[in-house]
Amino acid sequence: MLIPSLLMFSLLFVSSFASVQDFCVADLKQSDTPSGFPCKDPKKVTEADFVYSGIGKAGNTTNLIKAAVTPAFTAQFPGVNGLGISIARLDLAVGGVIPMHTHPGASELLVVIEGTICAGFISSANTVYFKTLNKGDIMVFPQGLLHFQLNSGKSSAQAFVSFGSAVPGLQITDFALFANELPTELVAATTFLDVAQIKKLKGVLGGSN
């Protein structure tokens, strides 16, 4: 009786694992939800859903921040949907900067591929951690904390950043304050910045009011 019982248990054990969903490739034709995109019909999934070539070339750094971020999140790379991982490429021209920002949905790991990058973050206790990183160096930025990357070298810099979420989210502090219709008086009252400086920054970043 013992052997049949063990056999039945083994079959149930294998069956339970066979029913596990291996992946949930995002169906970008449907609306996003707080828990992610709905799954694409597995019968329509191909190897192309698990391959993305978008971060193979440098981004355009001819802009205000002299930097470019090329993401491979769910919206660009449907295969990472629901897997808790994603990646992006950073390209920074000389003097380029990824301004102070936060990712509400994920921690971040940066690896420098070329050049020199000064990177850091601010803890919730307002302790600052920053370091000049060279090729091959890595740094981690805990979820939700303000952080930045700055090309501190004399040549262009490149890095890759991985995230613990397929949708890490992004809020850039400067844009949150100066690229919208938040009244200048409120910005001044809550940041102690000079009104003239606030209006100047709003003009540069496209804000109003």
Automatic annotation (TrEMBL):
It is found in: Secreted, Extracellular space, Apoplast. Mn(2+) binds at H101, H103, E108, H147. GO terms for cellular component: apoplast; extracellular matrix. Its main location: secreted. Keywords: Apoplast, Disulfide bond, Manganese, Metal-binding, Secreted, Signal. GO terms for molecular function: manganese ion binding. Disulfide bonds join C24-C39. Residues 53-199 form the Cupin type-1 domain. The keyword Secreted applies. Pfam families: Cupin_1 (PF00190). Residues 1-18 form the signal peptide. Oxalate binds at H103, E108. CDD domains: cupin_OxOx (cd02241). Belongs to the germin family. PANTHER family: GERMIN-LIKE PROTEIN SUBFAMILY 3 MEMBER 3. This is Germin-like protein.
